[in-house]
Amino acid sequence: MDLRGLGTALITPFDANGAVDYEALDRLLEVQLRGGVDYIVVLGTTGEAVTLTEEECHSVRQYIVQYINGRLPLVLGVGGNCTAAVIASLQAMHDELCSNHAAILSVCPYYNKPSQEGLYLHFSSIAQASPIPVILYNVPGRTGVNLLPETVMRIYNACPKRILGIKEASGNIEQIKKLITLARGTDLLVISGDDALACQVMKAGGAGLISVASNAWPKEIATIVHHKNHALQERFEPMINLIFKEGNPSGIKTVLAQQGLISNVLRSPLVPNSPAVQEEIAAARRQLSTEE
Predict the structure, then answer these.
(1) Class assignment of domain 5-227?
(2) Which of 260, 198, 206, 253 minimizes the C-alpha distance to 229?
(3) For residues 151 and 182, is the Cβ–Cβ distance under 8 A?
(4) What is the pLDDT of residues 221-233, one digit of tens each?
């Protein structure tokens, strides 16, 4: 499936007791369906997947599949720092993946900091094992390793029918442009993983954005992506900076709580934004509303 355009990296809402809040999840999914997004990324970094149990992950993804009911493509986060464990997860979910998901999003291994050769072997093994296409996810600020453009192309060329694209969240626009240049003439989708760089990446030939901000503003972020609307992106830039000021998904959960969609609850070791940043976000929201 051609996953171009806007994908929302969906948060996982929790209630006051820390359990998954399925009523809030209903509200969030309805906002996405009405907002013009092109697909939804389930149980990624923004979804706090690493703090959910296996049973909770299964329940959340099944709930989303049933609610969406084929109205939008779904991409499922399936990654880790143990290649064998990721492959075992893919094998265990084989039928479920084939029936319900367009692709998996697989993050670079974190903590053990593999070399470029290790990254190549990790992702080529996952690509061979996955029953559905793979989107690589490069986010060095979280993983401690940077998946270089040459390695991305080596992985793609080894598995061209299995690697759909890459979510590039290195924050390095020159690196992203180099990858886009190397990928010309192929089917590899280079997708921005940074809200603030969406227009720059698409201007260079990128395929779209996997967004955090679109949890709260799907229509506006869809306008930025679908129309390469630089002016609107510039208007949202202060807010985008604020929602990442104390980490993700703390900032976007503050916004969604202020919108009345969720409770502002995260799973430890993550915590809500400080009161000062919550007030900064509230002020930025008021400023955005006056500019409409």
Answers:
(1) alpha beta
(2) 198
(3) no
(4) 999 999 999 999 9
The structure tokens listed for 221 are: 């972020």
Q: Give the residues across from 167 on adjacent strands.
A: 137, 191
Angle of CA points 38, 42, 43, to nearest 5°: 155
Length of the chain: 292
- Amino acid type, 235: R
Q: What is the pLDDT of residues 254-272, one digit of tens each?
A: 999 999 999 999 999 999 9
Which amino acid appears at position 204 of this protein?
A
Going by the DSSP 8-state scheme, the letter that residue 273 receives in this structure is P
Q: Which amino acid is at 127?
A: A
Burial class (CB in 10 A: 0-12, 13-18, 19+), 55: exposed
| Amino acid (one-letter) located at 108 | C
Positions annotated as catalytic residues are 137, 167
Q: Which of 123, 125, 77, 69 is nearest to 99 (CA)?
A: 69
Residue 269 has a pLDDT of: 97
- Half-sphere exposure (CA, 13 Å, Cβ side) for 141? 11
Three-state SS for 140?
helix
